[in-house]
Specification:
Sodium/glucose cotransporter; 21 helices
């Protein structure tokens, strides 16, 4: 079989992108009609708080499920075996923790404050413009890192399966995602994310059928793995999946994902408490099924791809694209790659809209309000869309020279965002004694420690650097908060009930 499948595999992808753009245009037109007289900022960045349970669940699932979940992660499972799948199981907790811990209180406070972004909530809770600016800067930097990984992953997959160049894939993918994000705003992103989530499930089902058929069925596939790589059947994979790696990956892709800004902001966009409850149930089921199936496909690919890693370009990112090419006919391969491409698109679109809101809402509008200057509505409208476009274009340019090992890049950004926002959010919402100084120390000190340890390769007991970053952030939050003056009752009024 040829190394790529050509134009036939391209048709389903083009149709999907066309539908996504068309949906964004339609939703944008309907939103403009229904939002007459309402705030552009609330509509464009939070969809006028109108997301129902199903859309809320699927947009969060789609945002959480990035290209590394469908390409890099399963590729690593091809190397390690079922141990990587057992590690991935923890991702079933992501939406349960998000909507179970933060959801209700964040949604209520968001409505009470008229908050449009997560930084709005942080600014009001701690009464600090410096903390808000630091939060915006961290979001933009780590979101850009994540978006580059998504652009690269989508384009590499496109190149591997269709045979067209990496640059061609990047152009098609980049133009489509930037267009429908710029046009649709938050509401458009949410609905196209829901579409992406459904398509992800379809793509996984098609790939599962192709791999099992090409390997001769489940029993034949498992026999092949047992014969060639028996260690892949062990939970610890003969030392390739140590207990320490389980622990840190569970923290990185499971426990602390509830505080990722791109996910947490969706709580503010919920229609009501019922929508949050439904999203928690639907999202937990869908994300559990999706992540476990995706990583399982990586293991089962070992029943089809029997060479060593060097045979497939020396990168785990090539495993799933190669499995698609070797196990599916062209048109079905096109359907299969829509799943990971949809994952890339949904993640990028959510990060683009959040990055734009960080600049327009959290920096420009907040600056005007602080100094008592009127905001220019025309600039807010045109500037918000223009900044979305510019950020997308900048990430596109940076993606022209692709980095290697996508999942590691994605995990670095996850760790940075979790370190920055975990305790600032949790302590801010549930610990009255948390102070502005504590939050600044936690966010700034934690991210600095995390990035320094990543850059220097320093680890504690062989554990991933997230353990250092998150621990430093927690210690600084508690110690500095206890050593500084408590926040005033006026600052805390909207977050905690009055003392009796």
């Amino acid at each position: 079989m040829s190394s790529s499948l050509g134009f036939a595999s391209l048709i389903p992808v083009i149709l999907f992108l066309a539908v996504a753009i068309g949906m964004s245009v339609l939703i944008r037109q309907r939103a403009l009609t229904s939002a007459k007289g309402k705030s552009f900022v609330e509509e464009y960045y939070i969809g006028n708080r109108s997301l129902g349970g199903f859309v809320l669940a699927m947009t969060t699932v789609a945002t959480y499920g990035s290209v590394s979940s469908f390409v890099g992660g399963p590729g690593q499972a091809w190397v390690i075996g079922w141990g990587w799948v057992y590690m991935a199981v923890v991702q079933v907790t992501a939406l349960f923790l998000l909507y179970g811990i933060l959801g209700r209180k964040l949604a209520l406070i968001g409505r009470r404050l008229g908050a449009v972004t997560l930084i709005d909530v942080i600014r009001k809770r701690y009464g600090s413009d410096v903390l808000a600016i630091l939060s915006a800067a961290i979001i933009i930097v780590f979101f850009a890192t994540t978006m580059i990984a998504q652009f690269v992953g989508g384009a590499k997959l496109f190149e591997s399966v269709t045979g067209y160049s990496y640059t061609t894939g990047l152009v098609i993918f980049g133009i489509a995602v930037i267009l429908f994000t710029t046009i649709g705003g938050f509401r458009g992103v949410a609905w196209t994310d829901a579409l992406c989530g459904i398509v992800m499930l379809l793509g996984l089902a098609v790939l599962a059928g192709g791999i099992l058929d090409a390997s001769g069925g489940w029993n034949a596939c498992m026999d092949t793995i047992a014969s060639n790589h028996p260690e892949m059947l062990e939970p610890l994979s003969a030392g390739s999946m140590p207990v320490g790696l389980y622990f840190t990956q569970w923290l990185l892709v499971g426990v602390f994902t509830f505080c990722l800004p791109q996910s947490a902001v969706r709580c503010i966009g919920a229609k009501d408490t019922r929508a949050l409850n439904r999203a928690m149930i639907i999202g937990t089921v869908v994300i559990g099924f999706m992540m476990i199936l995706a990583t399982s496909m990586g293991v089962l690919s070992a029943g089809v791809l029997k060479g060593d890693l060097a045979s497939y370009g020396g990168s785990v990112d090539n495993i799933i694209p190669t499995a698609i090419v070797q196990s599916l006919p062209p048109w079905l391969a096109g359907v299969a790659i829509i799943g990971p491409i949809a994952a890339s698109i949904s993640t990028v679109s959510s990060l683009l809209i959040a990055s734009s809101s960080a600049i327009i809402k959290d920096l420009y509008i907040a600056h005007c309000e602080h100094y008592g200057r009127p905001t220019k509505e025309r600039f807010v409208v045109s500037g918000g869309q223009a900044i979305t476009l510019v950020i997308g274009a900048l990430v596109f340019v940076l993606s022209l020279t692709p980095p290697s090992v996508i999942w590691k890049i994605n995990m670095f950004a996850f760790g940075g965002l979790e370190t920055a926002f975990a305790w600032v959010l949790v302590m801010g919402l549930f610990w009255r004694r948390a102070t502005k100084a504590g939050a600044l120390a936690s966010m700034g000190g934690g991210v600095f420690a995390y990035c320094l340890c990543m850059a220097m390769g320093w680890k504690l007991f062989g554990l991933h650097q997230i353990t250092i970053g998150i621990s430093v952030a927690l210690i600084l939050m508690i110690v500095v908060s206890l050593l500084t003056k408590p926040e005033s009752d006026a600052t805390l009024r909207d977050f905690f009930p009055a003392r009796r």
